[in-house]
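Sanity check

After download, print the first record. It should look like this:
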Amino acid sequence: MNNLESLNRLFGDDVTVRDGRVAVSRPAALGSPAMDRLVRAAVFGDGDEKEHARWLIWELGQAVGVRPSSIQDLYMARGRGETHGFTVPAINVRGMAYDTARAIFRTAIKLNAGAFLLEIARSEIAYTDQRPAEYVAVMLAAALREGFRGPVFIQGDHFQVNAKKFAADRTTEVDAVKSLAREAIAAGFYNIDVDTSTLVDISKPTLDEQQRLNYEVGIEIIKAVRELEPDGVTISVGGEIGEVGTQNSTVEELRAYMDGLNRNLPAGMLGLSKISVQSGTSHGGVVLPDGSIADVKLDLDTLERLSKVARDDYGLAGAVQHGASTLPDSAFNNFPKRETAEIHLATNFQNMLFDHMPADLRATIYDWLTTNAKDERKATDSDEQFYYKTRKKALGPFKRQVWDLPADAKAALANAYDEKFTFLFNQLAIGNTADIVAKFVSPPTIHRLDPSEAVAVAAAPDDADLSD
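Expected structure tokens:
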């Protein structure tokens, strides 16, 4: 029996793979350790094995209703005032992705939550060594393993234009973002945050001029996204007016950006579903010399005003808060009260991973950083600051070691994640949102060719008969 047939037989008679089609006779079988073996092949397998495992996970999801989906219709309903009172967490899954996602889906099942996003940014894709096809396979496998059913919202976070690279070569940098969007959408990312806020130029005399490159280049990328949409899918696209960590956004800036974007969008083309703003946070928090995180001065009034204008005047779901995972626990219940549409959470889960990591592995990673990230160390950085800021860069090179943490470390981390995700989901009021999601979101079934079949199709001459 070859490797691909072994994958097809992982679930015994409960899953049948024949002629490029997958049938599931007992869905509960997908929640077994066989899924652990399948997802491992999807991440660490060799060539054909890896591709086949990813295809099989996708088709298993299609068979039982665990499908990558767009949150567009839910967000548009919120913009119309048909639903409210919760804040959608967008969770950046960086390290030990399968186990982390399993904790998220366990929590979702326990609380009947459906309104949450799993995301990864352009920069994270690189330093965590998780290309979109792998990321989608791992997220779907985690959902299947835990018995989750329903739409799975996978998002490209900060598909960002680098300002320096843009200044040096506009076409190449914008094309790089479009290329990433093409790869991500083909993989199953049906939610994309287009971040051209790096191009805002506050030296310009008017707000429209300050935001011009932001909305003009943003439209260029939105066009590419819309052209790539699969049949039956309207991708949820977010924009951004203020780079996280800079000065707080204003209503006037939001209007300048939205008016410019809507004015210049091609006729009939859908624009944004939400808008990211700056209200006092920073990515990862500000680390102090002793390794602790500085208090954040979060401007909730600004966030509430911007969210209201986004909904009332532009029909969006509202404003999006980035860089929030290191906020104090007491802050999170404010977001649904202020009708914040979405909140992005990343660094604290990474911190928890490093806190639960065996000391010898953490020391090995820090030694690696001392050599391989030395150019990122500022003269004023303490060791604590340096390692805190750079350790995310080790998640890719040490991916296999992190996936293979000892069982006791994994169990302790799973308990910690379960507790943290339960707290956050409750604070953000997304319990029972599975019912709201079901009301507004109906993902289509999208089948894919078995990779071996796809190769045969690609290799066939144009006039070949490939019918059954």
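If your output differs, re-run the checksum step. Summary of this record's structure: Residues 3-66+450-459 form one domain.
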